[in-house]
TrEMBL record:
<feature type="binding site">
    <location>
        <position position="146"/>
    </location>
    <ligand>
        <name>NADP(+)</name>
    </ligand>
</feature>
<feature type="site" description="Important for catalytic activity">
    <location>
        <position position="113"/>
    </location>
</feature>
<keyword id="KW-0511">Multifunctional enzyme</keyword>
<feature type="binding site">
    <location>
        <begin position="17"/>
        <end position="23"/>
    </location>
    <ligand>
        <name>NADP(+)</name>
    </ligand>
</feature>
<dbReference type="GO" id="GO:0016853">
    <property type="term" value="F:isomerase activity"/>
</dbReference>
<feature type="binding site">
    <location>
        <position position="193"/>
    </location>
    <ligand>
        <name>substrate</name>
    </ligand>
</feature>
<feature type="binding site">
    <location>
        <position position="215"/>
    </location>
    <ligand>
        <name>substrate</name>
    </ligand>
</feature>
<dbReference type="GO" id="GO:0042351">
    <property type="term" value="P:'de novo' GDP-L-fucose biosynthetic process"/>
</dbReference>
<comment type="similarity">
    <text>Belongs to the NAD(P)-dependent epimerase/dehydratase family. Fucose synthase subfamily.</text>
</comment>
<feature type="region of interest" description="Disordered">
    <location>
        <begin position="325"/>
        <end position="350"/>
    </location>
</feature>
<feature type="active site" description="Proton donor/acceptor">
    <location>
        <position position="142"/>
    </location>
</feature>
<dbReference type="InterPro" id="IPR028614">
    <property type="entry name" value="GDP_fucose/colitose_synth"/>
</dbReference>
<feature type="binding site">
    <location>
        <begin position="169"/>
        <end position="172"/>
    </location>
    <ligand>
        <name>NADP(+)</name>
    </ligand>
</feature>
<keyword id="KW-0413">Isomerase</keyword>
<comment type="function">
    <text>Catalyzes the two-step NADP-dependent conversion of GDP-4-dehydro-6-deoxy-D-mannose to GDP-fucose, involving an epimerase and a reductase reaction.</text>
</comment>
<keyword id="KW-0521">NADP</keyword>
<feature type="binding site">
    <location>
        <position position="185"/>
    </location>
    <ligand>
        <name>NADP(+)</name>
    </ligand>
</feature>
């Protein structure tokens, strides 16, 4: 894996998807790099429209591109809007990668997703496990579109010598997340549901599945920092996983979010609903060898995210709530169907 120093200072840098959680975090981080930042709204240029994308690239000619634009959502959205997730994400990736090549872009970073890995692949997930087995059915269309983007970046590097690289973030959360009641990711969804239950005085919150699946979560500002590091120092066709190397069960995550929000009611699990992939933990050894490790703990990141959620929605934040001692000592009686024998502390890989 060869290093190829690439300075962002003074470069014209396009962040595709700047209004999303990842794109907005990239803008915050890029503000320290001295780059000339380019952004466009969907009303200005629909990235699914090849002609519009080509015209914009020809006029602006960005020297570096962070391709973070995507149609994203949680398990409900992915499983319900399957055609939209496949079409929109294929079109965005295809159009931006081709336009970047055609207009002399010096470097491009494509953001994949950990859902590209087979459902039952060995854990932790290594970069070379892509396409070695069946995908998780609930988000297969999104995964296929992301795999296509990765392969496009590889193909343009192979055929044209384009310095296009791909990174694989784990599950993300943080400021700017989508808190839609049906289409949010798990951390954002839990923050909203626990907050609304606390405000309304509800005695319980119901969740999908058993609570048993393990997931890894990365604070989005850490992703942005890792992305800048790799954009400046990495140039190779191999994928790079970006994560923490730690995971936690969904039941434990629910307890952690409830503590941050200040919800004291019961947490139940609807076991008739699907769990999704049993475990998803990235092998981040390649990233560590490249000189980067995550800095924000899950507990701290959830606190920061909840504060941002309150600020965005103009609610009053409660006092910080630590994990109750009973979570460290015994099964939590508030959870029906699953129990947590301790305060939720993520497990570390390696």
């Amino acid at each position: 894996m060869a290093n190829a120093p690439f300075e962002l200072k003074g470069k014209t840098v396009f962040v595709a998807g700047h209004r999303g959680m990842v794109g907005s975090a990239l803008l915050r981080r890029l503000a320290r790099e001295g780059a000339d930042l380019l952004t466009i709204s969907r009303s200005e240029v629909d990235l699914r429209n090849q002609a519009a994308v080509d015209a914009w690239f020809a006029a602006k000619r960005p020297q570096a591109v962070f391709l973070a634009a995507a149609k994203v959502g949680g398990i409900v959205a992915n499983n319900t809007l399957r055609a939209e997730f496949l079409y929109d994400n294929l079109a965005i990736s295809t159009n931006v990668i081709q336009a970047s090549h055609a207009n002399g872009c010096e470097k491009l970073m494509f953001f994949g997703s950990s859902c590209i890995y087979p459902r039952l692949a060995s854990q932790p997930l290594r970069e070379d496990s892509m396409l070695t087995g069946p995908l998780e059915p609930t988000n297969e269309p999104y995964a296929i579109a992301k795999i296509a983007g990765i392969k496009m970046a590889e193909a343009y590097r192979s055929q044209y010598g384009s310095d296009f690289i791909s990174v694989m973030p784990t599950n993300l959360y943080g400021p700017g997340d989508n808190y839609h009641p049906e289409y949010s990711h798990v951390v954002a969804g839990l923050i909203r549901r626990f907050h609304e239950a606390k405000v309304s005085g509800a005695g319980s919150v119901a969740m999908w599945g058993t609570g048993a699946p393990h997931r890894e979560f990365l604070y989005v500002d850490d992703l942005a920092d890792a992305s800048i590091h790799l954009m400046k120092t990495y140039s190779s066709p191999e994928l790079v996983n970006i994560g923490t190397g730690e995971d936690i069960t969904i039941a434990e995550l629910a307890l952690m979010v409830a503590a941050a929000v200040g919800f004291r009611g019961e947490i139940s699990f609807d076991t008739s609903r699907p769990d999704g992939t049993p475990r998803k933990l990235l092998d981040v050894s390649r990233l560590a060898r490249l000189g980067w490790r995550a800095q924000t703990s899950l507990e701290e990141g959830i606190q920061l995210t909840y504060r941002a959620y309150l600020a965005d929605n103009k609610w009053t934040a409660p006092e910080r709530t630590a994990c109750p001692d009973k979570w460290r000592k015994q099964a939590d009686p508030r959870i029906r169907g699953r129990v947590s024998p301790r305060c939720p502390v993520p497990r570390r890989n390696g």
